[in-house]
Design a protein that fits this description.
The chain is mainly alpha-helical and about 500 residues long. It has 23 helices and 3 strands. The protein starts with a helix and ends with a helix.
Length: about 500
């Protein structure tokens, strides 16, 4: 077969697989938002069939033969840079997929949907015992996949690589071993201040959902400026999913006692959606139309959530929106107290509601628990007790219920073992991007308060979004910021910001 025919064929397969994947994502989005509870059995089978179709397309011998012909050095060097990248990336992905049997993919996808529903029920009823047998089965699935893929080194490497390509336990452990004591030390410094000892929440009372919804509807179009390409809905756990190059859905949730949680959640997911919508159209329906890692994707959501929306400059405009939306509740609240509440440091039970200083400690805890589960050092039945023990040791707080502890996150019910570390990596990346952005965009922080986001969006598009999955995440950071992943840069960012707030 001629090279031209091989190229046309691999692009055709990628497009078909991408479109079927979009359909599956739509079903998944509906499952999390509007599907009646009793629809789960049929939905799990629908998702399983679509995953089977895609897997069979990707592992097909005809596609593999075409890729092997295109990978020959004499052929590869004659391809355009784009075609060469597509071929090499697709070859790597197909080689990995061919190690996994179709039946496993079908069984796993079907179970994944059911497991997610059982997690919701367990969380609602505050009973880990409901979820435990399903989590045990999910871990068996993950261990089986590890055997199929069989990457070198630690078994957990296979799970990490699914979300952060090239990352290993050997690389990640020293990062967290360096970060953890720095965060503990910073928290101790903050706790020693008068400001910490006398701090108290100023947002009190009930903040109705409709008011929070109005603020969400105000902020997200400031970040996703193009109309008719996204929508926001409610779900148990906020998430973002791309259903096509011009259709991204994301969700938030509301707590009438904690309106800032909903707001920051909306901003976080808006950052994810912006990345998906800004991926280059020239790579549409190919393996390159993606972020190179979940860590880099998280850097975008964490930038908007933490660095922009918790900034002193932006607090002013957000304060105005809150006074307009909640005039009674905001009566007597001062701007300086509102800004402090946006950056209120206090060890808490819930990861998604954690402050910047303690957030990564929540991630390190989950990483350590995942390692123990995969290594077999920790049994599922002992997970709640171990969770509580580590929360007490690391953060000084203990969950009184499973819903506030081990059942708070959706990730394990989806099989996303290896995902949590990307939140910490993305948080570190975000601080580095911010430092460089300040050098490149004059008056950056003033722009936050004026909602002048276009230069920021353009900068992110140029340096991050436009790359698609053509180079590794750490290389993007290195090229943009002059250095790869840098824990010191993140700690410096935190210390500078919180020294000003708490005065230690």
């Amino acid at each position: 077969m001629a090279t031209k025919d091989d190229l046309e064929f691999i692009y055709e397969v990628q497009k078909e697989a991408s479109l079927i994947g979009n359909a599956a994502s739509l079903l998944q989005w509906d499952l999390e938002t509007y599907m009646p509870k009793k629809g789960i059995e049929d939905r799990s089978e629908q998702l399983a069939i679509l995953s089977k179709l895609v897997h069979e397309m990707i592992i097909d011998d005809k596609l593999w033969a075409a890729l092997k012909r295109l990978m020959k050095s004499a052929v590869l060097k004659k391809l355009t840079p784009k075609d060469r990248l597509v071929v090499t990336r697709l070859h790597k992905g197909v080689e990995k997929s061919r190690k996994v049997p179709t039946k496993f993919v079908t069984d796993y996808t079907k179970f994944q949907a059911i497991c997610g529903e059982k997690w919701k029920i367990a969380r609602e009823k505050n009973k880990f015992a409901i979820f435990a047998p399903y989590l045990e089965k999910m871990i068996k699935f993950k261990k089986q996949k590890i055997k199929y893929i069989n990457l070198p080194g630690h078994p957990y490497n296979t799970l990490l690589d699914s979300f952060e390509e090239g990352m290993t336990v050997k690389q990640l452990k020293p990062i967290f071993e360096k970060l953890k004591p720095e965060l503990v030390r910073l928290l101790k410094d903050i706790k020693s201040t008068k400001q910490y000892k006398r701090q108290k929440k100023t947002l009190k009372g009930r903040f109705p959902e409709e008011g929070q919804q109005a603020i969400s509807d105000w902020i997200y179009p400031q970040i996703i400026r193009e109309k008719d390409i996204s929508r926001i809905d409610k779900s148990t756990h906020p998430f973002t999913v791309s259903l096509g190059t011009q259709d991204t859905r994301f969700t938030t949730r509301f707590d009438d006692k904690d309106p800032l949680s909903s707001f920051t959640g909306t901003v976080h997911e808006s950052g994810h959606a912006l990345y998906d919508l800004n991926l280059p159209q020239k790579y549409a329906h190919t393996t390159l139309h993606d972020a190179p890692s979940f860590g880099l994707h998280e850097s975008q959501s964490r930038f908007w959530e933490n660095i922009m929306s918790r900034s002193e400059s932006f607090a002013n405009v957000l304060f105005t929106q809150f006074k307009k939306g909640f005039p009674t509740q905001m009566k007597g609240v001062k701007l300086k107290d509102f800004y402090h509440e946006l950056n209120f440091v206090k060890p808490s039970l819930i990861r998604v509601e954690a402050d910047e200083v303690t957030y990564c400690l929540h991630i390190i805890l989950r990483f350590e628990l995942e390692l123990a589960l995969i290594e077999g050092r920790l049994k599922v039945k002992d997970l709640p007790a171990e969770w509580n023990r580590q929360m007490k040791a690391m953060l000084g707080v203990t969950p009184k219920t499973d819903a506030l502890g081990v059942l708070q996150d959706v990730h394990w019910s989806c099989g996303y073992f290896g995902y949590f570390p990307t939140y910490a990596l993305g948080t570190i990346y975000a601080s580095q991007l911010f430092a460089q952005m300040k050098k490149d965009i004059p008056g950056l922080e003033r722009k936050f308060g004026k909602l002048q986001f276009v230069p920021i969006i353009n900068w992110l598009k140029k340096h991050v979004h436009s790359k698609g999955d053509t180079i590794r995440a750490d290389d993007i950071i290195k090229k943009t910021c002059g250095k790869g992943l840098d824990v010191d840069a993140y700690v410096s960012y935190l210390r500078t910001k919180y020294k000003k707030i708490y005065g230690f």
